Here is the input.
Amino acid sequence: MRPLRIVAGLASAVLGTFGLGAASIPFSPDLFLLFVADNARGGTVYRAMLTGLVAGLLEDLLRTPPRLLGLHAFTKILLGYLLATAEARFVVERPSWVGGLLAGAVLVESLTLALLLSVFRGEPLLWGSKEVVARALLTAAAGAAIAVLLRIPWRDRFAARRRRRIA
Here is the structure.
């Protein structure tokens, strides 16, 4: 069941990225980070880092071809490790905490990318833009919404609906 969930999560992140890009939305949530955060939920560091590698490489291929291949992969591996470690050490239950953790992860990722591009390509260190803040807020809102949806007992609701339909 887990490999199918990983493939479905990656496919939804890719299709969502394509869909948001086709809709010409100026600021969009980081769907690949949501995928990595979902796999880091159990506190399993290796699974979070492996999915961070795959998600980061896909993001490198889809988003920024002229940049260095592996930048997003490195940051997603780092964030997968940090999120899984935080999940193992702290109880992150409230949707606001999930959103705050994801907003912080977006800020750490953008700072890491800016530092790496500054070191490897000599680009100026531009970090505090409106795009970064909007991306952090949208990713936090999307993560909080997903956390709320995951707390709903869907199986019980579907079973109760099925029992009502049969009776």
